[in-house]
Structures are given as structure tokens and as C-alpha cells.
Amino acid sequence: MGVTYKAYDTNLRIDVALKVISPAFLGSDLARQRFLREARSAAALRHANVASVLHLGNEGDTCFYSMEFVDGETVDARLRRDGPLPVRMALEIALQVTRALIAADKQKLVHRDLKPANIMLQKEDDGAILVKVIDFGLAKAVESESADDMTLTQGGFLGTPHFASPEQLEEKSVDVRSDIYSLGVTLWCMLTGKAPFSGSMAQVMSKHLYKPVPVEQLAGLPASVVNLLKHMLEKQPNDRPQVSDLRKEIETAMAQLPAGDVLLTRVPVPPEGDSDTQAAMATLMDEPIQVPPLPPPVGPAPQPQRPPIAAGLEHRNPSRLLPFVVGLVALMILIGGGAYLWFPVQNAAKSVSDVPAEKPIEVAKAKPQAITPEPVVSTPPVMTVPTPATPVEVPPPAPPPPPKPSPLITALSAAQESIDSEDYPSAMVTLVEIARKLPEETEPRRRLESICARFIRDEKPADRESYEKIQAPLEDAAALGITSAAVLLAENLRERDPVRALDLYEKAALTGDVIALRQGGLLYSNRTQPGDMARAVSFFERGSQSGDAASAYLAGESYLLGKGVTRDPMKGIEFLNQAASKDYPAAIDRLGDYYYRERKEYEKAFALFEKARQLDWPPSFGNLGVLYMNGKGVNPDAATGADLFRQGAEKGDPSSMFFYAQCLENGVGLTINLIEARKWLELAAEKGDDRAVAELKKASK
């Protein structure tokens, strides 16, 4: 949506998070007004678990807002660093987010983009974790009079597909239950380390819409937690808990966890068949510590009837060995925690028999074993402690060399540097190369999609020189299956190579790309081959099913006029209403024309034309002017009608130019001005207005 900075508010004298919204999302006055309205609604939300909006403003065409700066880390960062969270911690985070949703629901706000990256964890002074939901400034205000007014963009889905609810993906009306679904996916991610569904964007969206959640991924979690997730992730909003009930369900699940459970995590199961690993896990810390045997003693003849203490040790008075064993173990600990020394036998040392006797220790009786006597040397064994050697200074080990960054990280860093300097061709070359070398990595492909989508959104490269700079890496990216690269190629080949462009649109349309569906349909509609128009309508219908307002408008026009399909006005109106619900002005104006010409419902036509005019649609100025001139749906007013023609003409509408020229020529609603009339008539003819062309021909005779 834009870029966020840590900033210092010189008035409040505090650190803030400053979010600057990308102009691409505020490309019209309507979108800007909608953003301001929704941000103001979000600013009214005050809750301990929400990063509050502090200030809203604009500079030029750019809007921005500042919000409370949260000094912590996102759940996403925590998961990337440590993996899945303990169950109790994950539930506690979900509970605090639920409290934020309860407060938002009272303000009729829906976040629409709940995910680990939008949940901050802040450690309090007492060590507790405080959860803060961020980016409520981009939330949707639920308004009863505009239930479908749901995006800042001109049609299309806003959010993150991996965490979006089914109704959000279908661009239906949403409420807090959509956020509950997103919170369920987030909780799933916190517990397992990954989202429930994976794959391409289209695959993920399809799975959210139609596939049951893969509960097998939750093996080992408490049943209460599994049931909670299943309830939150129901496909139908009515089947999910209300937000107040959700809080109770989470609290119940937490209460059913084992007492004192702070780090309740599932022990990873070794791979099947890995018997060595399984055995190691099973016997960890169960094996006795093995002490290496001492050298065989030399002394009096053994007593075969007594059982040995251990292999290699003659059964002597245990009290005589105790000080030696204790000393030996202490020495082993001091010189390395497990190393041991063999001591030489020397006649000049002090005899073990001279060690003062202590209280005998209890030794468990072992099963008697028969030992065959063997002749021994009569000299008693003696042991000495060696004189410590002069310590040798050992130089400290050299620090290990710093780990080399992976090729992926190196390539991504290089690509990002090129992007930051707006050297997109170099960035694309780097990303294509790494995508080929590491086909299993998704990040290079995601960044290629982002770069190409940026060119499409900004309508670049429009000129031949700009296109030639990126053509080679663009071809490579398209060959890798990057959808936006194929669309961008097709956009630049429409005029030069329409056959290749159609092929690229066809391939991109298979992924459900709305631009490919809309533009491919338009390209088909401009051809004259048999079946082209029918193919175009099928593209428009699929685009409308994906939520594209322009495609819905084009499908509606086709059914109203019977172009490529059997004429069906009711179906055409249905498509036009779908586009109009997203404030698509061409569809609103076309509906007004239908009610004016075919239904003769002039007041309804007037209301539709007026709404389209407010959206700055040039033809609507001329259509309103006609109603004022004829007194249809409104009191007749020639002056107002002439002024509307003038405004429409200045905005480039050919019909308004023609009507304004007629007013200037005949003095209708304004003073006669033949020179101005001629100028506007010629401009209308240049724009292709047939009536203006006919008037000029008549005047030339």
C-alpha cells in the first residue's frame, strides 16, 4: 500500500509510525475521499490492543497518516526466527487480537488484512506481552448505504490471499466475521509455522473458497484448540462464531490446557524408519554413566569366593578406594569434564593401604561368580600423583570466519539495490537468473511479479525506448510463467503483433488475471474473425467473476446490444449493476442511458447521470445537459443545460462538444458566438461525432 517510516512528531514530541500511501491507490478523487473517510473512522478507534491513528494529512497528491509507534516485533518476525509458538502464547495473542476486533466491531470497522505481519508484540515492564494490531488505518468502514464500497482501488481484491476470508476473495460484503477467519489462519500459522493453504495465488484463493482445512496438520494439538480453529475457519460467515463468542471459546481452550503450560509445544516426530533417532530419543538420560576401568591391581592372591565389584577391580575394602575414586572424579571434572588419566605404578609412592580407613560404604551384592585363581606378583600396588607439568600457553582459537551469505540472499540484495535506484532491467535480469538456478524458491518470482505489476499499474513502458530496455528480461520472465510479465508483454505487442499478444493474454487468463481477461477480450472484440466477439464476451464474463468492474461493464454492454451473444437486456443490466456497485462511472452512465431511452424512467436516469457526473465521467455532463434542456426528470433549465455541455466539452466528450456548439450557434441558454460554435463543432468532428461531421459537410456546400 505504500511505505512506513519511523518518524518523530515535532508537535507531540514522540516517535510515531508514519505511513505514506502509494499514489497508485489514490488515483482518483473518489478513492482519495474514500481513504480519508475510512482513515477518520479508524482514528476514532481507541483500544489497548490497537496501534492508534494519531494524525491524518496530505501533501500534493500523496496522503499519509501517523500512528502509535510500537517498539517490538511482529508475529511474522517471531515466527521466522523461532518457528511455531507455544500453544498458550499463541492463544493469548489471539485473545488480545479478539479484544481489538470487539472494539473495532463497535465502530463498524473491518480490518481486512489481519495477518502475522500486522500484529505487533511489545514486551511490558513486568515481562508480559502486549499485542498491538497495526494498519487499522486502511480498514473498511462498514456503511449501510454502501455495502459494496470496499476497496481503495478501482475494483479488485485488497488484502493478502493466504489470510483472506472466502467472502473477501469473492469481493462480497464483509464484516467482523471476515477478520475472524483471517485471525483463524493467523492462529494456525502461529501454531504450525505455516498457513493452512499453499501454492500459487490462484491456487491459494481456490483452496480458501472450496477446500476443507487440512486438519491433519494439527496432529498433536489439544482437541479444544483444533475445534476452535475449525470453527473460526468455516467457509460461510454465518457458521463462524460472533466476535464476543470467540473470546469465550479462546478462554475455554486456554483453561483446558495443562496447568502451568507455558511452553506446550509438540515434540517433533523423527522420520518413519529412523530407528537410530527413535532409540536415541527414547533412551536420552536413561543410560548409566560409564566410568572407565582402572588398571588391574597387583597384590595378594585373590579370594575367588567373593564377587567382584566391577570388571578389573579386586574385591578389597571399599573404604580404601573411596578417597581415590572421589579424587579421580574431581580431577576428571577439572581438566575437561570427562577426560581421565592413567596413573603409573611407582614403588616410591605412598601405598593405597596407608590411606586412613573410613566408614565402609554399602555395596549391593552381586550374583557370585566363580573365578579361576591365577598366580600374582606379591608386591602390593602403589600409586602416586604425578608432579604437575609446567603449564603451556595455548593461543586462543581463531574466531570462525563469518558465514557467507547464501546465493539467494546475495542475489535478492543486488536486485533490491537495482530496484531502489529504479534500474528495473538489471533487477529483472538478476531475479530471472536466480529463479532459474533456484526454481524451488518463491521470492525471486514474487519480486518479478511485483516489478511487472508496477509497470502495468503505472502504464509503463508506454514508449518504444522504455520497452526495449526491459524486453529481454521480460521475455525470460514470461517464459518462467510470471503472469504479470506475460500481460506486460502483451500490452506492448497489441499493435505490433496482435497474434502474439492474444496468445500471451490467453495464457495469463488461465491464471485468472483480470487484466489479461479484460484486455484480451477487448483485443478479440476489435477483430473480425468468426467467433471473436463470442470469445471476447467469455473473457469479459470471467473477468467480472473475478471482480473486475470494467469487465462487468463490457459484458453488460455486450448483452444489452446483443454483440457476440443473444441479446438479453436483463442479464446486461445485471452485469452493469455489478460494475456500478463498485463506482465504475461508465456503467452508471450506461444504466442511466438505458432507463432514459428504453424505460422512460427519467428521474431514475437523472439520478444515475448525476452520480456518474460526480465521479467525473465526461459523457454524463452531456447527458444531464440533455435532461435539463428537455425537462426530463428535472425542471427545464436551458442555462444549466448549456453550462453542463460546456463542462463536458472541456473534459473531452464529443457529444458535449456537439451540443455546446449548437447552443453557441443558436443562442440557447447563452449568447450566440458563431466563431466558438465553429471551433467546438470541428473538435467534435475530429473526435468522431457523426452529427458534427454531417453539420460541417452541410455548411461546406
Question: How does this model look, in words?
Answer:
There is one protein chain. This protein is an alpha+beta fold. Among the domains are: 2-68, Phosphorylase Kinase, domain 1, CATH 3.30.200.20; 77-255, Orthogonal Bundle (Transferase(Phosphotransferase), domain 1), CATH 1.10.510.10; 406-493, Serine Threonine Protein Phosphatase 5, Tetratricopeptide repeat (Alpha Horseshoe), CATH 1.25.40. It contains 27 helices and nine strands. The protein has a four-stranded antiparallel beta sheet with strand order 1-2-4-3, covered by helices on one side. It has a three-stranded antiparallel beta sheet with strand order 5-7-8. Mean pLDDT is 78; it is low at 141-157, 261-322 and 333-385.
Question: Notable features of this structure?
Answer:
Phosphorylase Kinase, domain 1, four-stranded antiparallel sheet, Serine Threonine Protein Phosphatase 5, Tetratricopeptide repeat, 701 residues
Number of helices: 27
Percentage of residues in DSSP E strands: 5-15%
| CATH architecture label of the domain at 77-255 | Orthogonal Bundle
What's the average pLDDT?
A: 78
Strand order of the largest sheet: 1-2-4-3
Q: How many extended strands?
A: 9
Helix content: 40-55%
Rounded Rg: 40 Å
CATH class identity of the domain at 77-255: Mainly Alpha
- Low-pLDDT stretches are 141-157, 261-322, 333-385
| CATH topology (level 3) name of the domain at 77-255 | Transferase(Phosphotransferase), domain 1
Give a brief rundown of this model:
The protein has helices spanning 29-43, 75-82, 87-106, 166-169, 176-192, 201-210, 223-232, 243-255, 275-283, 318-334, 407-420, 424-437, 443-457, 464-479, 483-493, 498-509, 514-525, 532-545, 549-561, 569-580, 585-597, 602-614, 618-630, 638-650, 654-666, 674-686, 690-700, and strands at residues 2-9, 14-21, 53-59, 62-68, 73-74, 109-110, 119-123, 129-133, 140-141.
